[in-house]
Amino acid sequence: MICNVNVYIDENSICKVDTKSDFFEVILELLKLSSAFKVDIEGVTIRFFLWKCDELEGKMLCIDEKEISFLLAVNQILRTDTKRLFKKVFYDKFSKVWNDEQVHCEDTWYEMSNGECVTGDTFAECAELTLSSDKHPIAFVNNKVTAGTLAEVVKGWEGGARQSIYVELADIEVNPKLWLEQKYNVADYCYDLASDIPPIDSQTYLRDSSRYTKTGMINHGKAVHYCVLERTYHVIDNLHYGESSHIEVWNRFGKHLGENDLNGNRISDADSTKNNPSWLS
Questions:
Q1: Is 52 buried (19+), middle (13-18) or exposed (0-12) by CB count in 10 A?
Q2: pTM for the full model?
Q3: Longest C-alpha distance within the chain, in Å?
Q4: I need a surface site. Which of 51, 228, 232, 255 has the fewest CB within 10 A?
């Protein structure tokens, strides 16, 4: 299973920092947030996407009463080690400019609950994504400007139909496992090795429907899957559970090839007594 964590930098609140220490604090918070999702969860691949506005690098700040661009502030204010870490996250292969894939329409009015217009800005994009996609956007803000767990964005023109949209704000103390469970139902894809029941297909490598096709054949109550690339049959052993859980594998002629763990790694050799299973007859 792949879980995408999409964090959108709100350029307007970030650029309202007015001291070097505040700028440094904001950058550290962003780094803490990105590292929070670098966790290992069995059966889950987590991809951290950092989305920014195409104007962010050149956006002007006023730090200690001096005007400076965002990118110049990064280069001049941050310590070498922090600068290196930040640029690694900021320019990572999963770091993108959201304007290239913009979903909100700039002919529509978007404003914050305080009346500030955000049409064309990151909050408008996050608001529309919250409504129309499964990206689960998180807005990373300068929490001295925008505080709380949610930000209200109002969509629509005065006098017409208006809609309040609540955008999730970043929390550097986030529990990544809990967050992913709430957004992606990760438990449905992760098997507990302390369980006293066998795993289900979605908790094993058989979840990959592009590679494994469910057949109409059944072995001890479990669906048999076929891998076209390898010409092999795979089925969860319904008689084992917990740490003994595994998947039985046969070739297309019914010869037993061995047992795989739930991630597809071979863990035992062929057993000739399992050749020619009845479901293949």
A1: buried
A2: 0.73
A3: 81
A4: 228
